[in-house]
Amino acid sequence: MVVSNKALSISPSSTLAIDAKAKKMRSEGIDIIGFGAGEPDFDTPDHIKKAAIDAINDGFTKYTPASGTLELKQAICRKFKKDNGLDYNPSNIVISNGAKHSLVNAFQAICNPGDEVIIPTPAWVSYPEMVKLADGVPVYIHCTEEEGFKFTLEKLEKAITDKTRAIVINSPSNPTGMIYSEEELRAIADLAVSKGIYVVSDEIYEKLIYDGYKHVSIASFNDKIKDLTIVVNGVSKSYAMTGWRIGYTASNEQIAKIMSNVQSHATSNPNSIAQKAALAALEGPQEIIDEMAAEFVKRRDYMVERINSINGISCIKPNGAFYVMMNISKLIGKEIDGMKITGSDSFADALLEKANVALVPGSGFGTDIHVRLSYATSMANIEEGLNRIEKFLSK
Ligand code: PLP
């Protein structure tokens, strides 16, 4: 049957594929330790849940404006002012069904067919597919572990052509946990302004940042870069609200209007009840963030130390998000427990099958010598999972 070539070109999410396999094994009664989670293992705070329950009881259950309620947009503007020193008006804000949806809207708004979007890798699996959905062309700059998984300005300059429409910045990063410093961001901003290219700045892990580092939004340096930047953020990761599906963008008014129009035909407003919950999250007590961050640091430290103490694997210390990229290059070409390791996919498969540990192969992120481990799981799970990895590697 004839189907859409564009839709056919979209790959399934590799992060979800390994998860499906692990779930199937679990349903067969196998005890799997999962390092695949892309979400905090904390519950949504009670005051946020209560705001949603109140919204239902108060009948706040109808359509809202397609790009979100004015009160939530105002709260988002206050957040940008307080956290990022950025001045926006509600007309700059579009609220969507998760930051993922915000990103889809952003690429729809800025890409014409054949426009290039620069994606530094290792990168979150969805960016290239979102660009393709918008008829854009993903262009990759590969960043090595030795470079701290960050691109240099020279690499960026080389990747820019007259077809470049935008660059994606994701700091702190999924999957590497790396953070661009203010100095690095200023240099990227200057280049983007001089070339007139947009910056899609995915700041969803903004609050999960450790070791005294401070998040800086690239949009905050001057009006020129602010005008070219679409800042993407949301409540999923900061407030343990992944299932509620609220994300948002801040951009210039023209782009906000285009995204709002696109969204008005695709999905209409984000869930009205979840918007009330997001309002409570942004305006209510912020302790959950510090509590989560403190717990994540303990787990990260343990995980990094353990990985670096096991023969054949290593990792650098990430400063944000909740992921560690484990280097498996020394294992490639070896046979472990009867399983041939040819790259990150076969390593992930072997580990799942022989050690009952699920993690995400790096291939989907653009690096086949790494696998991603999430530490958004209990310390007990982390200890047991790493014990299993150690035992598997000693075979
Ligand atoms: N951006 C990055 C880098 C992510 O890792 C994720 C979620 O995994 C998202 C955006 C999407 O978040 P949301 O749940 O708000 O759609």
Automatic annotation (TrEMBL):
Pfam families of this UniProt entry?
Aminotran_1_2
CDD domains tied to this protein: AAT_like (cd00609)
The segment(s) forming the Aminotransferase class I/classII large domain are: 31-389
Keywords for this protein? Aminotransferase, Pyridoxal phosphate, Transferase
Q: What residue ranges carry the coiled-coil annotation?
A: none
Q: Report the EC code(s) recorded for this entry.
A: 2.6.1.-
Kindly indicate whether the keyword Transferase belongs to this entry. Answer: yes
User: A GO molecular function for this record?
Assistant: pyridoxal phosphate binding
Q: Which cofactor does it need?
A: pyridoxal 5'-phosphate
User: EC class of this enzyme?
Assistant: transferase
Identify the domain of life. Answer: Bacteria
Entry's Gene Ontology BP terms: amino acid metabolic process
Q: Which family does it belong to?
A: Belongs to the class-I pyridoxal-phosphate-dependent aminotransferase family.
What is the recorded name of this protein?
Answer: Aminotransferase
Q: Which organism is it from?
A: Acetivibrio straminisolvens JCM 21531
